[in-house]
Specification:
The protein is mainly alpha-helical. The protein has seven helices and four strands, in the order αββααααααββ.
């Protein structure tokens, strides 16, 4: 049975927004931190970031493409605000003390992260949401495993090849970047596989709590229109 869904009906949507923004800002803070495993470099942010795609996949699966994509714009706004404040504070009065010099050394070029965010986050998340949404209709709501893994592999690859060259080029050589990007993508795919059971259980649980399962029939996938009211030709169906 179809029913009209109002934003205020949702019990967990705001929680998904807050968790996603928190994880993304944590990834920004740890973007320069790497771990070495037998000469293989993996960024700390790469370890944590898989949780974002898990939340994004579940959000789009439950609430649909438009509400899932709205979170992307919230991420971009919050990340930009965070990076600007940290960057400005790190370059002001650098000679004040040793701690200030450390902050400047670490976050003096933090603006690169913001540039990477403006390009990589929308590109990867819009791709992730589009794949989840379209394949959900194609598979008639089945095979969440296939939809989740395919979207994670493609979207996270887009994120890495757009974000890391911008945010890490001043810290690592070209060949180190290639190493970081390739190994981090491989690790993200492994992490996505490990998180898959959690994603399946979480999607089922949230659907049960919210009492919806949204299918995006005939909607506009223009990411700039996600805050507009649906047109007469669009039909977000929530069961």
């Amino acid at each position: 049975m179809n029913r009209l869904i109002y934003k205020n009906d949702f019990k967990l949507y705001e929680l998904f927004v807050g968790l996603t923004v928190t994880i993304m800002i944590t990834c920004d803070t740890l973007v320069y931190k790497t771990f070495d495993f037998y000469s293989v470099k993996i960024t700390a942010s790469g370890i944590i970031f898989s949780l974002c795609y898990l939340l994004s996949a579940v959000t789009t699966e439950v609430y649909g493409y438009k509400l899932g994509t709205r979170i992307v714009w919230v991420i971009v706004l919050c990340q930009s605000f965070f990076v600007i404040l940290v960057n400005l504070c790190s370059i002001y009065q650098v000679d004040n003390n040793h701690i200030s010099e450390t902050y400047q050394s670490l976050f003096g070029e933090f603006w690169r992260v913001m540039l990477g965010t403006w390009i990589s986050v929308p590109a990867s998340y819009f791709c992730n949401g589009y794949i989840i949404s379209r394949l959900k209709i194609y598979f008639k709501g089945r095979l969440f495993l296939v939809r989740y893994m395919l979207s994670a592999m493609i979207a996270q690859g887009i994120l890495l090849i757009t974000a890391y060259p911008i945010s890490l080029s001043s810290k690592y050589s070209f060949f180190e970047l290639i190493n970081i990007i390739s190994t981090t993508w491989s690790y993200k795919v492994i992490m996505s596989t490990l998180l898959l059971p959690i994603g399946i259980l979480l999607a089922r649980k949230v659907k049960k709590i919210e009492k919806i399962d949204t299918f995006d029939y005939n909607i506009s996938y223009n990411p700039f229109n996600v805050f507009k009211q649906s047109s007469e030709n669009e039909s977000n169906t929530a069961h």
